[in-house]
Write a structure and sequence with these properties.
The protein is an alpha+beta fold and 448 residues long. Helix content is 18%, strand content 36%. It is built from seven helices and 22 strands. The strands form five sheets. Strands 1, 2, 3, 4, 5, 6 and 7 form a seven-stranded antiparallel β-sheet that branches. β5 (71-78) and β6 (82-83) form a beta hairpin. The chain is flat. The protein starts with 5 loop residues before the first strand and ends in a 15-residue tail after the last helix.
């Protein structure tokens, strides 16, 4: 078992005398056959996969046999008492027929799939992914003064007060409700996430990235603000985009409903009560939509990428906590374009070091590495004045990898894109070994 499924191995022993009658049609003649004295002993493997965060929490069941039944015995009779199993060769023939029927249906690795939730609890395959890099935050103390929980304070806290009452924050972010990630906690009202590894989330152009500001130990209280942006907005800008987005309490712009619920004790009829209930629900739904629009306009007004081009008047000060984040949309293609028989997976590539990189015109090569796989690519940092570079925490994640078709290509280039060699690694090799840590010689050059 692992975090996304639970596997149970069940030893099943069954002995009974069922009354099962089937009709066989042979040589143009129909005659009934009775199955009796059934005895069965086998190991059944039941897999709950996937496990999700939504009730009933199990997306589907997969059932299979780990081996052919240890005991499989039964009797076949033609009523009233003609024993077919007494005919030489019939018992072995019937057992072979049963085994040949079970093997492609339930004998491992073949499994009988039984969905419990729609689409087996699995969200549709994505066509891209979003690289998320958190940089820093500013004005986190403002959540106390501008959130609805304490908006009555009316003024900012003093510098000494903020130092003495410093809180610890982290940020939750997600594109799919079932896959929520979070940053490492940071202390203070101006936290910094410099050096934190980049995160990758699956998405489409229409998917929305949500981020939520949470204070350690206060998750039971309503969150301290949310921000959101559509992945298509990032994709249209092509390449990494750095934004400053404000955290705004979800209900900050939401108007309160002026209507009140009606009760039968005041003499109202059932129809009047239900009509008022429907009116309040419609009001809240409309108010929620208007609040989302207001918050979204604020996000785009406050984004640094639009400050230079926007003709909209910007606020002199942003009265909400803000997060500086670098986003990049990576198009991974539509998985449905490939045959379903291929298995998709995820590969993580970590750069450690390189040796004996060729010098360029007698000078150190200043190498940079580009890693490509499954229509995705990542560039490492460039190492200056060395032929033996070492990288620290340079880790890249590739999604929707088809191990039977894709290869990992690692290219080394110097200044002015001078090619210093490449190597290719078969993704099937990674899948079969689970993890590989090795030195690969560069091709296309004399050494390296």
């Amino acid at each position: 078992s692992h975090l996304e499924n639970v596997i149970l191995d069940i030893e099943l022993t069954w002995g009974s005398d069922p009354d099962i009658i089937v009709t066989l049609y042979m040589f143009g003649i129909r005659f009934p056959v009775k199955l009796a004295n059934l005895q069965l002993k086998m190991v059944l493997q039941v897999t709950f996969d996937p496990l999700v965060d939504i009730l009933p929490c199990i997306g589907a069941l997969e059932v299979c046999l780990t081996d052919m039944p240890e005991i499989l015995d039964f009797g076949l009779f033609i009523p009233p008492k003609i024993d077919l199993m007494s005919i030489p060769g019939v018992h072995g023939m019937v057992r072979n027929i049963v085994q040949q029927s079970l093997a492609p249906l339930m004998l491992y690795p073949y499994k009988l799939h039984m969905p419990i939730m729609p689409n087996s609890g699995i969200q549709a395959s994505s066509t891209g992914m979003l690289r998320v890099k958190f940089i820093s935050g500013t004005g986190f103390f403002k959540r106390r003064n501008y959130s609805k929980l304490s908006r009555k304070a009316g003024k900012a806290s003093g510098r000494m007060t903020r130092l003495l009452k410093s809180d610890t924050y982290f940020i939750k972010f997600w594109t799919r409700d079932a896959r929520q990630l979070q940053t490492p906690p940071r202390n203070g009202d101006v936290p910094n996430w410099d050096g934190t590894p980049d995160s990758f989330v699956l998405c489409d152009r229409e998917t929305t990235l949500f981020m939520r500001l949470v204070k350690t130990g206060a998750e039971r209280v309503s969150n301290y603000g949310e921000c959101q942006i559509t992945c298509g907005e990032i994709a249209d800008r092509e390449g990494p985009v750095t934004l400053e987005l404000p955290f705004i309490e979800p209900s900050y712009y939401k108007e309160e409903c002026p209507l009140e619920y009606l009760i039968a004790a005041d003499g109202y009829t059932y129809d009047e009560i239900m009509q008022r209930y429907a009116d309040i629900e419609a009001w809240n739904e409309k108010a929620e939509q208007d609040a989302v629009q207001q918050r979204t306009k604020y996000f785009y007004r406050a984004s640094t990428a639009k400050r230079s081009n926007s003709k909209v008047a910007l606020p002199k000060t942003i009265n909400h906590p803000t997060i500086k984040v670098e986003l990049e949309y990576i198009d991974t293609g539509t998985p449905d374009d490939v045959d379903e028989e291929y298995e998709q997976g995820l590969i993580t590539v970590e750069l450690v070091e390189a040796r004996n990189i060729l010098r360029v015109a007698g000078n150190p090569p200043n190498p940079k590495v580009t890693v490509r796989c499954a229509k995705q690519y990542f560039d490492s940092t460039r190492k200056i004045r060395t032929s033996h570079p070492k990288w620290d925490n340079e880790r890249f994640v590739f999604y929707n990898v088809l191990a039977d078709l894709d290869t990992i290509r690692i290219e080394v280039t110097g200044l002015n894109d001078v090619k210093l060699g490449y190597c290719e690694i078969d993704a099937k090799l990674v899948r079969s070994n689970v993890m590989i840590r090795d030195i690969f010689p560069l091709q296309g050059v004399d050494k390296g």
